[in-house]
Design goal:
Blueprint (H helix, E strand, L loop, with lengths): L1 E3 L2 H8 L5 E6 L5 H11 L4 E6 L19 H10 L4 E3 L3 H4 L12 H4 L3 H4 L3 H16 L3 E5 L3 H13 L5 E5 L19 H6 L2 H14 L5 H14 L2 E10 L13 E9 L2 E8 L1
Parallel strand pairs: 1-4, 2-3, 2-5, 3-4, 5-6
Antiparallel strand pairs: 7-8, 8-9
Bound molecules: pantoate (PAF).
Enzyme class: ligase
Keywords: ATP-binding, Cytoplasm, Ligase, Nucleotide-binding, Pantothenate biosynthesis
Pathway: Cofactor biosynthesis; (R)-pantothenate biosynthesis; (R)-pantothenate from (R)-pantoate and beta-alanine: step 1/1
Length: about 280
C-alpha cells in the first residue's frame, strides 16, 4: 500500500491503478469504513482511500479541532483490508489558498434535516468530494448510508454535474446493541455509550410501527422525541421521509426512511433506518 500526501504523487499512481474504487473518509476508521473498502475491492482493480478532516464541512462551534486524527492506525487497518493507495493530504495540499469556489447543493435538500441544523455542512461536503473526485478520478465511489442525506446530496451532485463516477451506497454497520458505528461514538462516556442505542431502538420502533400499517408519522415521531428527551437527550429531529428526496411522504407506496439526530451530552449522533 502506498501513502500519498501530494496530488501529483496520487495522480502518478492513479495512471497505473486500472479500474479504481474510491472510499473517501475523515479517518478514525471503524468497521463501517472497512466494510466500504471490502465492497470497493469487489468492484475494481485498486482501492483508493482518502483521509482528510475537511474544515469546510464543520460549523464554527462544531468539533473540527477535537475530531480524532489517527493516521498511523488508520493506515494499518486500510492496508490489512486490501487498500492499494491512501491519499492523506494536509490542509495546505487540499486548500493551498482560501477556497472561493464551492458546490452549492439544491436548497430543497440542504434546508431540511441535517441542513437545518448544520447550515454550511453539505456545501463543505460537496465541495471537498468534488475536489477529491477530480484528484482521484475513480470509476466508482462509495459512501455509507449512515449519512443518508449526504449520500443523496452527493448522488444528485454527480448526476447533475455529469461527473463520470458510479456512486455506490454501503449499509450501516452496527454494534451488537444496535448503535450505528461512527467516529463520534468515541466521544461518549461509558454511561453515554450504554444509553446511546436508545436512538436506534426508537428508529426501529417507528420502522416496525409503519410496517404494521401505522401511518400517523407525527404521533410516532413525537413519542420518540419525548422518549429520548426523558432520558436526557436533546433531539434535533426524528422524521419519516421519502427515500427518494427526503421530503415528507405523499403517496401510500412511497419508499420511506426514518432519520434522526440527537445530542447525548456533548455528542451529536445521527442514524436512520429504511422502512
Ligand atoms: O462522510 C465523511 O466521512 C465525509 O463527509 C466525507 C464524505 C469523507 C467528506 O469529507
Amino acid at each position: 500500500m502506498q501513502i500519498h500526501t501530494t496530488i501529483d504523487s496520487l495522480r502518478a499512481a492513479r495512471k497505473t491503478a486500472g479500474k479504481a474504487a474510491f472510499v473517501p473518509t475523515m479517518g478514525n476508521l471503524h468497521d463501517g469504513h472497512i466494510d466500504l473498502v471490502r465492497q470497493a475491492g469487489e468492484k475494481a482493480d485498486s482501492v483508493i482511500a482518502s483521509i482528510f478532516v475537511n474544515r469546510l464541512q464543520f460549523g464554527p462551534s462544531e468539533d473540527f479541532d477535537r475530531y480524532p486524527r489517527t493516521l498511523a492506525a488508520d493506515c494499518e487497518r486500510l492496508e490489512a483490508a486490501g487498500v492499494t493507495h491512501v491519499f492523506a493530504p494536509d490542509e495546505k495540499v487540499m486548500y493551498p489558498e482560501p477556497q472561493h469556489y464551492h458546490v452549492d447543493p439544491a436548497p430543497a435538500q440542504i434546508s431540511i434535516l441535517e441542513g437545518e441544523f448544520r447550515p454550511d455542512h453539505f456545501r463543505g461536503v460537496a465541495t471537498v468530494v468534488l475536489k477529491l473526485l477530480n484528484i482521484v478520478q475513480p470509476d466508482v465511489a462509495l459512501f455509507g448510508k449512515k449519512d443518508y442525506q449526504q449520500l443523496m446530496v452527493l448522488r444528485n451532485m454527480v448526476r447533475q454535474l455529469a461527473i463520470p463516477v458510479e456512486v455506490l451506497p454501503g449499509e450501516t454497520v452496527r454494534a451488537d446493541d444496535g448503535l450505528a458505528l461512527s467516529s463520534r461514538n468515541g466521544y461518549l462516556s461509558p454511561d453515554e455509550r450504554a444509553e446511546a442505542p436508545r436512538l436506534y431502538r426508537q428508529l426501529a420502533r417507528i420502522r416496525d410501527a409503519v410496517r404494521r400499517g401505522d401511518h400517523d408519522f407525527l404521533k410516532l415521531e413525537t413519542i420518540a422525541v419525548a422518549e429520548l428527551a426523558a432520558h436526557g437527550w436533546k433531539p434535533d429531529y426524528i422524521a419519516v421521509r421519502r427515500q427518494a428526496d427526503l421530503q415528507p411522504p405523499v403517496h401510500a407506496d412511497d419508499p420511506l426512511v426514518v432519520l434522526a439526530a440527537a445530542k447525548l451530552g456533548r455528542t451529536r449522533l445521527i442514524d436512520n433506518l429504511e422502512i
